[in-house]
Amino acid sequence: MKFTIGVITASDKGSIGERQDTSGPLIAEILKDIGGTLKEYTIVPDERNEISNTLRYMSDDLNVDVIFTTGGTGFSPRDVTPEATLDVIDRLAPGIAEAIRMKSLSITPKAMLSRAVSGIRKQTLIINLPGSPKGVRESLEVILPALSHGIGILKGIEGECGNHKK
After folding, report:
1. 55-64, pLDDT tens digit by residue?
2. pTM value?
3. Hey, what long-range contacts does 77-84 have (CB within 8 A, 24 or more apart)?
4. Lesser CB count within 10 Å: N end or C end of the chain?
5. What distance in Å separates the CA atoms of residue 138 and residue 103, rounded to the nearest whole number?
6. DSSP code at position 17
């Protein structure tokens, strides 16, 4: 199934060119292999309003099917991506973040420190991912098997049991 994606990297240093973002481009590269087309990619500072406004823009104006954020999900006082996501979603999709944490916990006990969330705004799925390329790759490996089906349900082209709607 073809679907559109938006990628938001939350990084103070990345937003002013002091650090090269490798996680955001990695998301687009991995998703391209399963039918994802990058519609928008941006780097924003770790500011709650900037992140939430960008999430709204990608969902409401660009109508992307899924938005991935990377970065800003830890314990640092500047890590506000989960709060910005909660500001804009209509419904939670907790199983996605829980699955990522479960897999990550099998690799490192530090995974329990992730505050990432996932949810739905209108017909857009929003998923918080870690900031590191390693964390992005591991997280996507967990959710890719179910991602297309979830997007299909949101778009109204698949039923809950995986049957295509007429």
Report:
1. 999 999 999 9
2. 0.94
3. 78/12, 78/46, 79/46, 79/115, 80/10, 80/46, 80/47, 80/48, 80/51, 81/10, 81/46, 81/51, 81/116, 81/128, 82/115, 82/116, 82/117, 82/128, 83/48, 84/48, 84/49, 84/51, 84/52, 84/55
4. C
5. 8
6. T
